[in-house]
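Step 1: inspect the first sequence and its tokens.
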Amino acid sequence: MADREGIFAGDDPFAIARSWLAEAETSEPNDHTAMALATVDGDGMPDTRMVLLKDIDGNGLDGSFVFYTNYESAKGMQITASGKAAFVIHWKSLRRQIRVRGTVTREDGEQADAYYASRALQSRLGAWASKQSRPLESRAALAAAAAKQGVIHGTNPRRPPFWGGFRITPVQMEFWADGAFRLHDRFRWDKQETAWSVTRLSP
């Protein structure tokens, strides 16, 4: 597309996403990988929460976005049931955002093991201790559960079988940048069989 230049230029949406993420790393004061993840429950009721994007893997038609969580959490069970999710990542400092909709599979192999091992010990033990999304008696009860897991697993806990990654493979992506007088730039990428089609959208 002739007018897709500058920060929007290129034939690979994942390369653009990586470029924007790298810029945000130097400009966002906190959590430049934070994204609002949307799912739906069994009744079709939407649900959103903030999670951290941990990897942008692959390129072209084979790229995906990876985050990690407890598979038994509300979002984990909703994703497992539907196999679909969406997210938006917004960088206020850059005045840009990326929206993604796609299918979801688990990332629970060596890549998940490696990421889990890279986390701080207390975070690894916390993954064992937290019954994510379920009622909790008190903060003290959570601390006690984490301490108990430390006794059980020691200083090198393995990744819990109920904790790992989800890989979102986009069917649609949108790149947005702020424009003067709200005349923003928006480009939607739709996945086709052999290529992405790109459409400029009205702001």
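Step 2: inspect the second sequence and its tokens, then contrast the two.
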Amino acid sequence: MVVDDHPMWRDAVARDLAEAGFAVVATAGDGPQAVRRARATRPDVLVLDLNLPGLPGARVCQEVAGEDGPRVLVLSASGEHTDVLEAVKAGATGYLVKSAGTEELIDAVHRTARGDAVFTPGLAGLVLGEYRRLAAGPAPTRGKPDAPRLTARETEVLRLVAKGLSYKQIAERLVISHRTVQNHVQNTLGKLQLHNRVELVRYAIEAGLDEEDETEGTPGAER
């Protein structure tokens, strides 16, 4: 589903995606319409502009993203850090600026559909840096006696997710299939009662997994 308030841009993006083999189930030109149509059509991926009449894109993302909602790829003219962080905190899986080419957009939609976090070059580091800043405070889920226990492999995958690797890169690093990586991530989300990869990255950084050496044992992991 494609959401943008500029009809020519919206139609062009929808056409490019359809020509690339995607089924474009709906389009929308304002925030309230986007929420209604996303709930009605239940797309796998929502390509979303932030500057929308009626309801801002970040609010649309909050309304529709989640465990049963679509993965959200923001496609915005703005590359401002505040806009990027607001979108990610609202539940967006990725963020692409409108200066991206058609091939880059198509690749980003494919990767978003697979569950990868996709960012315009330079923005991924910004998001991870913000997570580290937020994680400097107390982490309520750490140290609880009833904290869920992850297997060694789940913890290993989680550590690589925290370091910003895509599912494909994790699969290559661990010499396992892309599907196996997805299964480990889904199992981990269930155990930790999290809803998406964005929350998973924050949890991992709070746990310090982005800084641990991969050869070290993992506290609390089953072996």
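Step 3: confirm your contrast with the notes below.
Strands lie at 2-3, 27-28, 45-48, 71-76, 94-97. Confidence is low (pLDDT under 50) at residues 138-146, 212-223.
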